[in-house]
Design a protein that fits this description.
By secondary structure, the protein is α/β, with parallel strands linked by helices. It is built from twelve helices and 17 strands. It is globular.
Amino acid sequence: MKSRSHITFISILLTACVLNALAHAAPVRRKLAVKAGRIITIAGKDVKNGVILIKDGVIKAVGKEVEIPWDAFVIEAKDRVVMPGFVLAHTSSGLDRANENMPEVPFISTFDSIDPISTFFEDSLRDGVVTMLVLPGNNTLLGGTGTIVKPYGRTVEAMLIKRYTGLKISLRPSQNTSRMGHMQRFRRYMSDLKDYLEDYEQKKADAEEEKKPFDEEIDVTKQPMVDLLNKRLTAFVYCDRAADVSKAIEIKNTHKLDTVLVLGPDCYKAVGLIARSKLPVILDSQLVVWETNEQTNEEEMKIIPMIFHKAGVKFAFQIDTSQYGRRYLWYQAATAVKYGMKRQEALKSITLYPAQFIGVDDRLGSIEAGKEATLIFLTGDPLDAQSWVDQVMVAGEIVYERAKDERLKKLLEPPLIMQEPKDTD
C-alpha cells in the first residue's frame, strides 16, 4: 500500500512539475504578414503592393521592401485596399435604454447599458467601424460617463477597450427648461460641488493637523465631476445651437476642462469662435444645410465640413443610424471630399482624429509600427460607394469576413420567383 501511495504521490508531483513548466514556457509568437495591393497608412503616403508585418497583434513594419519571416503566416490581399479601421468618437446607439430623464447624473455609466447583441454593433463591424465611444444622449445636463468598445464580443467585458472615459454635458435645455434656467442649473451644481470639495479638503487638513487617520472618500455620485476637474476625464459638450458654443467655451475656460465640442448642424455659424478656441469638434451627421440669404432672399447651400476645414478646425464625423447614407462614416468623408475637402483630411476625420479625441491614438487610427493591427480590408477605394468591407482584423485576429456574413447573404440574394402552377388538365 505504501509503495502504491508513494508511486501515486510521485506521479502527481511530476504532473504538477510538467504543468508548471508549460505554464511558464515562452508564449507562442504569432507572426502575420499582410500582402496588400494598396495600403492607406493615414500616417503617411499610401503604399502600393506593400506588406504589413504583424507580431502578437502589433504592427512591426509596413512598406514595399518589408522582409517576411519564414515562419510568418501570409495573408494574400493583393486585390484589396487595407487601411486602419474607422473610429466613431461619439454615439449613443447600442444602449438598451439611454438616460434622457434624470438631468444631473454624472455618476451613471453607459457600461451598464451597452447591449452586446444590438444590431448596431453588428452593422458597425460590417461597415468597418472598429472602435467607438458610447456616450449618454444629448437631453441630459450631466449625462454620465462613456465607454470605449469594439463592436465585437458576446459580453460588454469582451468588447471593452476602456470603461471610464468622457463625460457628457449637454447644453440643450430639457424638461421645459429655458436656456437661462439650464445654465443656472449647471452653475448651481458646480457651486455646490466647489463647496463640497472645500469642506472635504478642510476635513482632511484638520485630520492631518490632529494626526488622526482620514479615510473618508469622495462621494461616489460626485467622483466623475471631480475627475473631470482634475483632467482625468474629458468633457464632451453638446451644443444644440450656435448660441450654445460661447457657453461651452465659457465652461471650458472657467473650470479648465479638457473639452471636445459635439455640435448640432446650426453650430457652423459659430465657426470663428470655435477656431479661436482651438477645440476639437465632432460634427453633426447632417453635413449640408440650406439657409436663406437675408439680402437676396435666395437659398444658399452651406457645406459644413468645408466651413470648418477652411477655418482650420480639426473635426471628426459621426453617423445617424436612421438615415441610409449618413449611417456610414465613409459616406460622411466622401461627402466632404465631393464638396472640396482634401481626401487625406477627410480620411483622418474617420480614423486618426476621432482616435485622438477619445484618447486611443497611441494604438489605433493609422498603420505604423507600434500600433495595434486593427485593420479593414476593402474591395476598392474607401470613398467609393461600390466598395465593400471584405474583412476586419482586430489586434491581429480576423473577426469579420463578408463571405461568412449570413445576414448579408440573405439581404443580397435574389428574390424567389413565384411560378404559376402547371395546368394538369
